[in-house]
Amino acid sequence: MASGRDDDMDWLYRSPDRGEGQPSADDRSRSSGDASGRRRASFGEPEPAERTRIAQPPPEERTRVAPASPPKAQRQSRSQPQSRSAPPAKPQSRRPAAAPTRTRRRKRRRPVRNFFALVATLLTLWLIFTIGTPIYAWSSTTKADVMPSGERPPQQPGDLWLLVGSDSREGLTPDERKRLGTGDIEGQRTDTMLLLYVPPSGRPALVSIPRDSYVPIPGHGRNKINAAYAFGGAPLLIQTVEQNTGLRVDHYAEIGFGGFVNVIDALGGIEMCPQTAIKDKFSRLDIQAGCQNMDGVTALGYVRMRYADPTGDLGRMNRQREMVAGVIKKAATPATVVNPIRWWQINQGAAQSLTTDQDTGLMSMVGLAGPGLTIGRGEGVAVMVPVSNPNARTAAGSSMLWDKEKSQEMFSEIAAGNTANLDRFIRKPGE
């Protein structure tokens, strides 16, 4: 069998040991070319264009070549079939060595993000509480139709507020009246009257109107100005103030005894500095000289006391302006707004005893903070209506008479929107 195979292949692979009689190289190429041509013809192969031929074994020899063995990995996988239930093997992780560090760094950042999220949430809640508290408190205030009808003075530049401290005992229990020393007098009177003027530019002015001012009251002749409130309430009081000053009242705000005390207590007291010791049985005031922190009850007696003051109502008006400035100054500090308990008590205490005109809104009240703080710092003007006689004998008893010339000058400057020269109307001690 081996001999026959050698013979069959001998025509292509000429053995070098055949010796003499071998054909030449040209003869071999022509023979192989003829044989190859005959094979291509027999198999239907196209004849190539170029002369170079690649020798191939006969077809029968090519069929005898054993197929290539599959790779070793394939033979092993075929011989060792894997279980269908086994999950495929996961590839080995090729992450760089820094990957665990990044994971740990993300974990360290989470507490920082949580902290800032907590701070943002608390800040949002605080803003909602700060803004919402006065809005809620404002809903409990009393709105009244107090602006008078009929002919009124022309509108002056800026805004003019009439601030009234009422001595009404309404809403106070007998124990509260006893504690506050208000007595049992029925009805409602104006214990304090202040004009707060906010000009378009320049310093704000706080003008005290003496409660015993002897002036004409529309429909009631001449009487003390606080009688106007007793005769016709806030509308007649506003009308009386407008006719005697020539100024138009833009806003009206009234607070009672209870609201005043609640605001002072909510602020933690107000520091006042009486120059002498004061003991007054009517206001139940008994304090020493010098600076001291006064609670609500003591502060109320301090601003109401007049019988133990040698200057009478003039001294009381000075203390009232001093107290108002102190309250505004302390209420406008950041500590008041930051402290939620104080902020809530101040708004609730003031709103529950506050009465305003119907056109005065919350933003108008908020707008008082700036001018009030200016006056509280002593940068505004704090004066009283000029008086010619503080103890005049009238049909209404001991009364105060306005200095017509000076008071008219002061009111004329306010009507013109000018507060630059109001300092000359400041009453010096002993005058």
Automatic annotation (TrEMBL):
Residues 15-31, 48-64 have a biased composition (Basic and acidic residues). Pfam families: LytR_cpsA_psr. Residues 1-108 are annotated as: Disordered. It comes from the Bacteria. Residues 189-332 form the Cell envelope-related transcriptional attenuator domain. Residues 71-87 have a biased composition (Low complexity). Keywords: Membrane, Transmembrane, Transmembrane helix. The chain crosses the membrane at residues 115-138. Belongs to the LytR/CpsA/Psr (LCP) family. This is LCP family protein.
